[in-house]
Amino acid sequence: MPHLLQGRGETALAGALRRVPLLAFDFDGTLAPIATTPEKARVSRSVSGKLARLCRHLPVAVISGRSRADVSGRLDFQPHFVVGNHGCEMEEDALATHGPELDAARQLLASQAQALAAAGVSVEDKGLSIALHYRLARRPEQALATIRGVLQPLEGRYRTFGGKMVENVVLPDAPDKSRAVHHLVDVCGTDCAIFVGDDVNDEPVFASAPPHWLTIRVGREDASSRAAFFVDSTAEVALVLDRMLLHLGA
C-alpha cells in the first residue's frame, strides 16, 4: 500500500478529481484525531475551513460511526451529506424506525453494567448502534474478553465488530459504510468517490471500491487493509485536502 503523497499517489489523486467525485470522510481518526473519550473529539478550524472550500466545488460527505446528530454538532462546516452509525443512519427516520430493535442488547448490557464498569468499559448507546469502549481500561485485553463474554448471548441476533479500542453492536442487516458511499455516489450522479478512513468499519468501502475510485487509509499499521493508498496521520489528511484544493484551483 503506497503513500498517497509520494510517487504515483499524486497522479491517482489528480485522476480521481477529474471525474468530479464524491468526497467522503470518516470522522474519528480521519478528520479528527482519536480522543481519549468520544466527547473530546474535535476537527481543527483549519481542516474545517479546507472542507468548507471543497464543498463549493464537489459533493462532500462525512460518514461516521457516531450518530448523525453527534457528528453534525462537531462540524464547523456544512457537508452535503452526514451519515451516522457506521452507515445505518442515512435517513432521518431511521432512528425512530429501527432503534427499538436494539432493545434486547440494551437490556443485556444494563444487566451487566457492573461487570463492564469494573473492567473499565463504558457503554455508548448511539440509537442504531451501541459502542463498548475500553480505551481507558487498565487491562485492555481483559476488558475486551469481558465485552465478548457479555455479548456472547446476542450471537446470531445482532452483528458485532471491533475497532480501535471499541466493540460495536448493530442490527444483523444494518447497512455498512460501503452501502452508504455507493448510495451517495448514485445520488450525486457521479461514478467516482474519494474515500478516507482509518478503522475496521471503513474496510468495506475499501474492499468494494471500483478500480477508478480512490481509497485512502489513515495509518499503515494494518497490512491487510484493502485501501489503495495510505497517509500516516490526521495531520497528513489536512495535507491531502490542500492537494485537492490545489488540483481544483480552489
Can you tell me the residue ranges where pLDDT is under 50 for at least 5 consecutive residues? Answer: none
Strand content: 15-25%
- Counting helices, strands and paired strands, the structural category is alpha/beta
| SSE arrangement, N to C | HEHEHEHHHEEHEEHEHEEH
What's the total number of strands? Answer: 10
CATH class of the largest domain: Alpha Beta
Integer tally of domains: 2
Distance between the termini: 29 Å
- In spatial order, strands of the major sheet run 3-2-1-8-9-10
Give the name of the CATH superfamily of the largest domain: HAD superfamily/HAD-like
**Helical content band:** 25-40%
* Rg (CA only): 18 Å
- At CATH level 3, the topology of the largest domain is Rossmann fold
CATH architecture annotation of the largest domain: 3-Layer(aba) Sandwich
**Count of DSSP-assigned helices:** 10
Main sheet attributes: strand count, strand direction, barrel closure: 6 strands, parallel
Average residue-wise pLDDT: 95
Overall body shape: globular
GO molecular function, one term: metal ion binding
Keywords: Hydrolase, Magnesium, Metal-binding
Function: Removes the phosphate from trehalose 6-phosphate to produce free trehalose.
Pathway: Glycan biosynthesis; trehalose biosynthesis
